[in-house]
Each structure stands twice: as structure tokens, then as C-alpha cells.
From TrEMBL:
Binding site for S-adenosyl-L-methionine: 101, 103, 125, 141, 165
Enzyme Commission number(s): 2.1.1.166
SUPFAM superfamilies in the record: S-adenosyl-L-methionine-dependent methyltransferases
Source organism of the structure: Tistlia consotensis USBA 355
Active site as annotated: 205 (proton acceptor)
Record-linked HAMAP family: RNA_methyltr_E
Region feature Disordered, mapped onto this chain: 1-40
Main location, first listed in the record: cytoplasm
Catalytic activity: uridine(2552) in 23S rRNA + S-adenosyl-L-methionine = 2'-O-methyluridine(2552) in 23S rRNA + S-adenosyl-L-homocysteine + H(+)
Protein name per UniProt: Ribosomal RNA large subunit methyltransferase E
Name of the encoding gene: rlmE
Length: 255
């Protein structure tokens, strides 16, 4: 259910690897390196070898490791925030599909969750996630009936931003996989419509393809602006993109 099984991340080139705090997108990327090749071991499949080679040669993987970020996907959120100004000090944030915590780290930093009077970050994933200072971490299947109420209790009030990087396990059948990710997106949106404060925002991973009409109609009916954004840290060969909705028009029910 969580995209973070394979890691989150990405960032812009230039700058010294490891320089700057997690929120400093400008330092992401590092100098260009010669591509390394991985030999296929007897017990390693070709697909595993190719994945390992991609990880070794991915500058965002190296940059995330150098800066103490939990995944390369942290750079995706950093780039979305740099482009759209989503994260602000003092906000309440929900991070769905959070493990291993790359997006959560960025959110904690940007909303000042470790500071007195700062923001609040609640993270959920079906997978186990190491505790993270400044965040409330909940291991639970988001689709369980009890999940929304438990998230609301930890939030302690309306949310300013709901983030969802959830992704169902892939089947290898593109149409089926797309329907599954849209179903998760619709579930995340239904939750967001319950908890967002007026003016709040929603960010959700989707895959390029059809069957999004209903999702987009609901977003356009409830938010001032809806757009699709593919951050530079998303791999070029990946069909993933993010739908970003801002300016929530409604008011949440009592939380």
C-alpha cells in the first residue's frame, strides 16, 4: 500500500552532497558521477540487478543518504513545496502512506513541529515505521474502518494539508494497477474532505491514465485550484504524477 517500500526521494542538481538542512532543495543532487554497472549474481534476477543498478546510480538516493533523509522521495515533496508553497509554519499535516518517513521528515521541518507552538504532523502507514521526533506515527491500514477516527484524534483539530503517497502493490497489469491507485486516491480525498480546514490543500499520487474523471470532478467541486505536477525527482520512466488541490472551499465536520 505504501510507495515508500521502494523509497521516496529526488531533488535538483547542483551544490555539495549533504549540504544544507532537509528543507534546502538547492543542495539536492550533487555532482555528476560516472555510471556504475552491477553484475548479475547467480541468485539475483535480472530485474533485481537492474533495480540495484538504478539505486546505485541515482543521485537522489545518494543525496538522501548523505543528508540523513529516510528516502529519496523526500525530494518530491520538497520540490512540490518549492513550486507551490504548500507547507507553512504552524500547520497541521496528515501524511498517508508515510513509511519509511521521507515526506514526514520534510513536513516536520517545514511546519516547525519540533518548536514550541509549532505545527503538528500525523503519519500513517500499513508498514512499520521508525519513530520520528515531531510526528505522531500510526501503523494501520488506512482502509480500516477505525483509521479516520484515530487520525482525527491525533490531529487535535482541522488539518491544513493532507498528503497521500499511498500506492497499492502492483499486479503487473497496468489497467488494474491504475484502478487500484485511483481507489486509494478517492479514499484519501474522502478523508481530506472531512478534516481539512477552509483554504486547506490535498496532495495525492496518481498514475497517468484514464479513470480519473470522477476524482477530478470531486476535486474541482471542492477546491479553488487543481493541477497535475510531476516533480523532477519522479523518475522519468515512471507513470506517477501528483494531483495537487488548493483552496478548500468547505468546512470540516466537528473533529
Amino acid at each position: 500500500m505504501s510507495e515508500r517500500r521502494g523509497g521516496k526521494g529526488g531533488g535538483k542538481g547542483g551544490g555539495k552532497p549533504g549540504a544544507g538542512r532537509p528543507g534546502d532543495v538547492r543542495s539536492a543532487g550533487g555532482p555528476r558521477r560516472l555510471k556504475e554497472r552491477v553484475k548479475t549474481a547467480k541468485k539475483r534476477s535480472l530485474s533485481s540487478t537492474l533495480w540495484l543498478q538504478r539505486q546505485i546510480n541515482d543521485p537522489f538516493v545518494a543525496e538522501a543518504r548523505a543528508r540523513g533523509l529516510r528516502s529519496r522521495a523526500a525530494f518530491k515533496l520538497l520540490q512540490l513545496d518549492e513550486k507551490l508553497g504548500l507547507l507553512k509554519p504552524g500547520q497541521r499535516i496528515v501524511d498517508l502512506g508515510a513509511a519509511p518517513g521521507g515526506w514526514t521528515q520534510v513536513a516536520v521541518d517545514r511546519v516547525g513541529a519540533l518548536k514550541a507552538g509549532g505545527g503538528r504532523v500525523v503519519a500513517l502507514d500499513i508498514l512499520a515505521m521508525e519513530p520520528l521526533a515531531g510526528a505522531e506515527v500510526l501503523q494501520l491500514d488506512f482502509l480500516e474502518e477505525a483509521a479516520p477516527e484515530r487520525l482525527k484524534a491525533l490531529l487535535g483539530g482541522p488539518a491544513d494539508l493532507v498528503l497521500s503517497d499511498m500506492a497499492a502493490p502492483t499486479t503487473g497489469h497496468p489497467q488494474t494497477d491504475h484502478l487500484r491507485i485511483i481507489a486509494l486516491a478517492e479514499a484519501a480525498l474522502a478523508f481530506a474532505l472531512e478534516v481539512l480546514a477552509p483554504g486547506g490543500g490535498f496532495v495525492c499520487k496518481v498514475f497517468q491514465g484514464g479513470s480519473e474523471k470522477g476524482l477530478l470532478q470531486t476535486l474541482k467541486a471542492n477546491f479553488d485550484k487543481v493541477r497535475h505536477v510531476k516533480p523532477p525527482a519522479s523518475r522519468a520512466e515512471s507513470a506517477e504524477t501528483y494531483v495537487v488541490a488548493t483552496g478548500f472551499r468547505g468546512a470540516p465536520d466537528e473533529i
